[in-house]
């Protein structure tokens, strides 16, 4: 049976409290840590549940925490909370084995979905996800320009930066972006990045 324990790591006490309240009232067991070092010190072996951690923290940040968890042999699923514009960090986190990331500010339901998915999956994401082959197939239907915009987006570039790089207008970038989101059926940039990393495109 999947554990419903969530280890929440965030140096912002207000954020910790609000996430804890949401998870607690939704039936999850919650443990709070204000620093990555606290989690590493207190985590039992074998650990159960999943980790929800901020990516930007003083001392041990989210990426370093993920590295240390993995090197210590912990295979808990890890969900990263990222600030707006942290796509390159989120990509790096996914490559290190995070199972998902969620961008602040997030809707309650989006967070709950990410946590439930992580707990059901258990451990680092396996690329045997049935939707992955379908995503790769859809990427194959993109035009050359749409694929260039996809690569730039997954690399963390903004529409203005993509426009400069490809020598087109920001408005044109938005049109290509809308087309590639529709073709890949990604519901959000977060989902697009996650699929792209799992498919080895990032």
From TrEMBL:
GO biological process: phosphorelay signal transduction system; regulation of DNA-templated transcription
GO MF terms, alphabetically ordered: DNA binding
Ranges of residues in domain Response regulatory: 5-119
Annotated keywords: DNA-binding, Phosphoprotein, Transcription, Transcription regulation, Two-component regulatory system
Domain of life where this protein originates: Bacteria
HTH luxR-type domain residues: 135-200
Gene3D superfamilies named in the record: 3.40.50.2300, Winged helix-like DNA-binding domain superfamily/Winged helix DNA-binding domain
Bilayer-crossing regions: none
Keyword match Nucleotide-binding: no
DNA-binding found in the keyword field: yes
Residue numbers of 4-aspartylphosphate PTMs: 54
Name of the molecule in the record: Transcriptional regulatory protein FixJ
Source organism: Methylobacterium hispanicum
Gene it is expressed from: fixJ
């Amino acid at each position: 049976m999947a554990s419903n324990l969530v280890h929440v790591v965030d140096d912002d006490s207000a954020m910790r409290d609000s996430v804890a309240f949401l998870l607690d009232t939704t039936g999850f067991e919650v443990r709070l840590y204000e620093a990555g070092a606290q989690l590493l010190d207190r985590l039992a072996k074998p650990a159960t549940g999943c980790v929800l951690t901020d990516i930007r923290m003083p001392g041990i940040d989210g990426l370093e925490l993920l590295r240390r968890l993995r090197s210590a042999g912990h295979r808990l699923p890890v969900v990263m909370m990222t600030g707006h514009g942290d796509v390159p960090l989120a990509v790096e986190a996914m490559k290190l084995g995070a199972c998902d990331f969620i961008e602040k500010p997030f809707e309650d339901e989006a967070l709950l979905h990410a946590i439930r998915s992580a707990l059901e999956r258990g451990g680092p994401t396996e690329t045997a996800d049935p939707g992955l082959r379908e995503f790769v197939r859809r990427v194959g239907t993109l035009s050359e320009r749409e694929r260039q915009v996809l690569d730039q987006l997954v690399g963390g570039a903004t529409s203005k930066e993509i426009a400069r790089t490809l020598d087109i207008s920001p408005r044109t970038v938005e049109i290509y972006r809308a087309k590639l989101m529709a073709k890949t059926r990604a519901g959000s940039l977060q989902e697009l990045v996650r699929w792209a990393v799992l498919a080895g495109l990032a």
